[in-house]
Amino acid sequence: MTDTTRRRLLMGAAAMPWLASLPAGAEDLYPARAVTMVVPFPPGGAADIAARPVGEAMGRFLKQPIVIENKPGAGGGIGMAQVAKARPDGYSILMALSSVVVLPEADAVLQRRPMFGLAQLLPVARFTADPVVLAVRADSPWQDYAQFVEALRAKPGAYSFGSSGNYGTMHIPFEQLNAAVGTSMLHVPFTGAGPAVAALLGGQVDAVATGPSTVASHIQAGKLRALAHWGEGRIPTLPDVPSLKELGVQAVYLQWTGLFAPAATPGAVVERLREAARFVANDPHANQSLKAAGTSMQYLDTPDFTPFVAQEARTLAKVVQRIGKVE
């Protein structure tokens, strides 16, 4: 090794203290202890519902526990930023919703310091991708979508919807709907889908738009009614619920869950995470657990998930810009 090469390596290590502190060959031993999977929302939402069976199956494959850590706040931004800024050694990973591509753009629109940048996260795998469902209480006066929209038009701003936070995966779909059909509703943000659905059940809000897994059990129990969804076709778990496109409304939105790691995570560690993700995608127990929760495996490996994330970021940035500042 030349002196010049040695100096460059030492300068690189000094610029990245975490790298200098890693023992030689540490990535080859990965994982040597439990891995923390951060879910940036409270229990009961789509990310948490996916994280439980995914984490359990990954743990079986990696032969180390995957510890789920719910870290809600700022529409998911607090937990996402925690992983984006974490030591990139594979022991802090993120189960994110599609809002992960939206929040940096929202920070730009709000002209505030970004909580994190999308470039700080490395896409590993997508697990689910569901159109959000328009749900109301079963005792509401609306038996179908047409009655719902008629009521919104008759009383602009009189009805409310709950969400997981500003610019989140439950906020953007309603903004799309309002823009498409010329209606307005009061937006009531919560810390996650679980609290928002609880507010709907309790009568604090009139509707939600969320992933099928979040409301499926309540629909089956007769507590909620699904009026429409933001997909391209029918949802297998809700075959009688029409899509907005079927109803003549141009609004499509998928709520997906995906695994991310800090961007500088060593390649060997990322490969182990990819292997674990592929194991999950083919694991009967994980697939059955997702199906029982009202969703299904929609797996994408890193080479396909990475451009998917980039395209989602471009598409949803335009929606955020159209929404503008939300205080």
TrEMBL record:
The Swiss-Prot or TrEMBL record describes its family as follows:
Belongs to the UPF0065 (bug) family.
Q: Does the keyword Signal apply?
A: yes
Protein name per its UniProtKB record:
Tripartite-type tricarboxylate transporter, receptor component TctC
Which Pfam families did the record assign? TctC
Q: Does the keyword Iron-sulfur apply?
A: no
Q: What is the lineage of its organism?
A: Bacteria, Pseudomonadati, Pseudomonadota, Betaproteobacteria, Burkholderiales
Concerning Gene3D superfamilies, the annotation shows: Bordetella uptake gene, domain 1, Periplasmic binding protein-like II
Top-level taxon of origin: Bacteria
Q: Secretion signal: which residues?
A: 1-26
Which keywords describe this protein according to UniProt?
A: Signal
